[in-house]
Give the backbone structure.
Amino acid sequence: MPSRPTGTKRQPRKKRNTMFEPDKQMITFGVTVIENLFITEYLRAAKGEYVKVYLFLLYRCQHPGGEEAGLEEVRDALDMELQDVESALRYWERRRLIERLSDDPPRYRLYHIGQRTLTGHSMESEDSAYINFSEAVYALFGNERKVRPADIVAAYEWVSDLGLSQEAVLMLLNFMKSTRGKSFSFKAAEKMATAMREAGALTPEEAEDFLGHSRSVHDGARAVLRRFNFRRLPTEDELTLYQKWLDEWGFTQEGILSACSETVKAATPSFGYLNGVLDGIRQRGGAGGAKKAEESLQKDRQILLGAREVLEALGIRMAPTAVRSAYEALLRLAPHEMIMMAAREVALRRGRFEDIEKQLADWKKKGIVSPDQARAALPPRPNAAGRGTKTVSAQQYAQRGYTETELLGSSLEDRMKEAQKYDEP
């Protein structure tokens, strides 16, 4: 072949028509090659969504079809959210299987795994930030728990996707381990990480404040469970309720624990029952701490106890809550001792609850406004043996305040039996 004369320029080649082109059906019915290294070294640690994206990119690179695959095409083809596609791409960037070439528009290059291994860019050569984070997570758990690579990937997404600092994420993992046990779910930790993001707790200092509050919620919820004689960790729903009592309703931990005494009325105490108790206190303006909560609870107990005693005096079997409002209205007219004497007078006439108010009004017209005056105005009544008058138990019992221990330690029936001892001859 004659050589080209020195100094002459190479003439540009004429553009030739493509001699061969693939049939479009070859793409549909063809084969996409997946390296075994991907299965043995990468598949286990990757999320399913990430694997879907990688396989689609591999398919499009091996069968380009005449046009490049954009993010929107990947999103539509896999029926995924665009942010999930971007998260998958960031993941494979960290694993050094793809490289971002430009941002606008976003362009990536897909690498052959064997090539990356031979050139020293294998999975052992991931970005240093991810490696340091992985080592810190492994060190945090030590021999207590075997952390899966997928768990570390998930936790690192809280750094790359949610914007938390690595230190904040490590603090979160340590918090979950200390409060939920070493076998806690990373899914539950992800919810907490999302809450930290929404609260703006991104730095170590902000995370410390956020997790400090969360620890108080967790410790408080466990204290409630101990009051219920439950030896277990609180559920997510129970923690949510406890946080609502603190943050939205304004109770202190002492106030919540003091309200637990009301749950003895329930066959099986629960956070749901306690929620109803606290809501009742809140509706009546009793929220704001242990003292106010206890005052409100004590007032409730006294009112219901008084209403029950009046119903007993009338000989009526009814829940005291049914006449609570009516009993409170009577208390605005007369003290409990006079109400009880009026109830016994009404009972002798086989009257009804509303007749008590009429009896009190009749006494008031006659100038009887104190228990002593009412007692003196009562006519003597002989007993069946004709032994003259007899003082009933309630007359010998002066009204007194009950402590929480007395109220909870003895039932109304116990107190009635004690009172009946005075009726014995």
Summary: The CA atoms of residues 130 and 150 lie 13 Å apart. Residues 292-423 form one domain. The chain is about 60% helix and 5% strand.
